[in-house]
Amino acid sequence: MKPHPGHSAGQAREAVETVYRAESRRVLATLIRLLGDFDLAEEALHEAFAAAVEQWPRDGVPAKPRAWLVSTGRFKAVDTLRRRARFDASLVKIAEDLELSAGDAAGRERLDLEDDRLRLIFTCCHPALAPEAQAALTLREVCGLTTEEIARAFLTGAPTLAQRIVRAKRKIRDARIPYRVPSKEDLPARLDSVLRVVYLVFAEGYAPSAGPSLVRADLSAEAIRLGRLLLELLPEPEVMGLLALMVLHESRRAARMSPSGELVLLDDQDRSRWNRDQIAEGVALVERALASRRVGPYTIQAAIAAVHAEAPSASATDWSRIVTFYDVLQAAYPSPVVELNRAAAVAMRDGPAAGLALIDALLARGDLGDYHLAHAARADLCRRLGRTADARASYARALELVGQEPERRFLQKRLDELPD
Amino acid sequence: MKYVCLIYNKEEDPGRAAAPGRDVLTVRMRNGRLSAVEGPAADPEVRLCGVVLIQARDLNDAIRAASRMPEAQSGSIEIRPVEEPG
Questions:
Q1: What is the structure's pLDDT at B15?
Q2: Helix or strand or coil: residue B66?
Q3: Is B37 helix (H, G, I), strand (E, B) or coil?
Q4: Domains contained in chain A, number
Q5: Residue B69, SS3 per DSSP
Q6: A312-335 burial, b for 16+ CB within 10 Å, e for fewer?
Q7: d(Cα A380, Cα A395) in Å, to the nearest integer?
Q8: Which residue is closest to B56 within chain A, CA to CA?
């Protein structure tokens, strides 16, 4: 490799950082496949980037940085194994096999790269791992978030989360969880947990559970990318449904926040700012998924989002259709949150009093007492009915429970705007 | 991110009080198995015998680096994040 005439050492260091951000997770996924071991692969990834920091400023940035990192990582792993083989003879054979496979694997590598990420997703979302460990592993190993970022997103301490990740990796190793995409028979069940994790990642990027920022576009974009990748591999209706749901939510991103960073409710959003390309894509996916006649919860939720997306305004929305979809959802996958959303749709169809009766019944049951949106929805309906004192009490309760800063400001504003 | 690794090993100075701290985690390697446990290295038999400042991508990357230190095999490595200004 000759030094690149146009590249200074500083530019090369910057290139390492850029490549790290863009490629490190893909390189890791491939190294895990090649080395068959999470820890060894992470060590190899680390050493490959350490070598890049040293060599790229001197020799220039390689034409194919990702391939360079994979092959460098592999050689470093062979070195590591040989070093350790001095104490453990069983490693000699592994190191030799690894060296032999280096040649013929090089050509296959490019084709396998995206598959490697899928393998990694299925491994990270393996049902043998605790659900919270699945999400944490996927976010760190597939999406490249740091332990600290994930800990903040899950409102937990970094040591707790780090410990969870270490244990999950040990479990993968001890239980010999295979690093591959599951067989056709196992796929539906395994897919469920993958979809749940992907949606969790999206939701964390779209409406983080806490913290100052309303949206983390990078996380949502990553989840959508994972959704597309899944759909490519597996054109299952629910994969379409999930992707549609994410894309339709995403289409409203620009309208969800005012220029000053305030939350704007769906009904009040400037619909000219909705992304029409994303809506077209989402609606087409929903139609394909519904046509399959194997409809799951993501597809129904996407169908509801599609009704909103195609309505010219809140008042001109087909609320009957939305209530019907919520009925289907509630019948097949009952949950108090679905009931709450249905109540809000009923309020739009039949008036605030009808919605309020449903929400009061729901709160009386005690299911959603700690859910700030239940109180916020109740407050809004009371406000529209002129029941100011009730509205004030419910906004106050919602404010006690809300975790996210822009939502808190929104509720405070609504509370302040109530007449005396 | 920067982390400080406090290296503990068996010495003649018992009775070291375990320092409290929310962001502390302790790494040990025993028979090729890595363990990372929340909290300080609370073993009263050990004492502080070294301090290393490392640069790592995140806490799990710091755990990986600490697990490679020879002292992790017999002693304990306590990891604490270093607050960076700004």
A1: 41
A2: helix
A3: strand
A4: 1
A5: coil
A6: eeeeebebebbbbbbeebbeeeee
A7: 8
A8: A46
Candidates A211, A289, A305; CA nearest to A249 is: A305
> A167 vs chain B: nearest CA distance in angstroms?
8
Chain centroid to CA B67? 9
Identify which of A240, A197, A235 has the alpha carbon closest to the alpha carbon of residue A219: A197
pLDDT at A106 over 90: no
Query: Is the pLDDT assigned to residue A157 strictly greater than 90?
Result: no
A110 domain-assigned: no
Task: Please indicate whether, in this complex, the C-beta atoms of A158 and B23 are within 8 angstroms of each other.
Answer: yes
- Cβ contacts below 8 Å, chain A against chain B, sum to 57
Confidence band, pLDDT 50/70/90 cuts, at residue A250 = very high
- Out of A146, A161, A170, name the one closest to residue B57 (CB): A146
Domain membership flag for residue A19: yes
What residue numbers bound the domain in which A21 lies? 9-103
This model of the complex carries an ipTM of 0.83
Q: What is the CATH number of the domain that holds A55?
A: 1.10.1740
The pair of three-digit structure tokens given for residue A157, joined into one six-digit string: 């301490």
The one-letter amino acid code at A301 reads: Q
> What tokens appear for A235 in the block?
């054109």
User: Which tokens go with A55?
Assistant: 């060599």
Q: What is the pLDDT of residue A154?
A: 67
Residue B75: DSSP 8-state: S
